[in-house]
Amino acid sequence: MANRFRGYLPVVIDVETAGFNANTDALLEVAAVILDMDEEGMLIPQEAIACNVAPFEGANLEKSALEFTGIDPFSPLRAAQPEKEALETLFKPIRKAVKANGCKRAILVGHNASFDLGFINAAVERAGIKRNPFHPFSSFDTATLAGLAFGQTVLARACEVAGIEFDTRAAHSAAYDTEKTAELFSLIVNRWQELGGWDMVLRSQED
Length: 207
Prior knowledge:
Layout: E1 8-17, E2 27-37, E3 43-52, H1 63-69, H2 83-100, E4 105-110, H3 113-127, E5 134-141, H4 142-150, H5 155-162, H6 174-194, H7 200-206
Parallel strand pairs: 1-4, 4-5
Antiparallel strand pairs: 1-2, 2-3
Helix pairs in contact: 4-5, 4-6, 5-6
């Protein structure tokens, strides 16, 4: 894995939020899927890790965003965690996987990845977390990759063209969208590998 992505471990992330501004709007859900690799260099998505997040103090809650996601930020049924606890729940297995794969850092994979990375970075800063496992600005964007591979940039449509089952009723849940994004990213990378890919062994020797 370290040789395939220049020392970075791809981790798929999706967030659900109460708006579009990472600095002012609440982070409400966050989920991650860590990717594994088999002996033939094929990516295999692992189980999703997901947390409901309590709005930080003074967070903005856009009514239109809540109506879109259907999330009630203050429902006791959510069992929401403060941002710091939720992030550490995600970061602990990510750090472990980074070390186990001989990688130097994780790199975020997301559908419109800059949005997810912006909210992760803002929450990390608010929580005062010193060891963010993710690269601070680099990412892999499946909207771009799906546009190249399948001619579609919307997640549901890209999955449809790729032959990945997608339940629109379950969409806009961080856990579900993360799982589907992980399937999509893995399929694109694996198809490239099947077409010949590139010689990871030779590249490793050169490095």
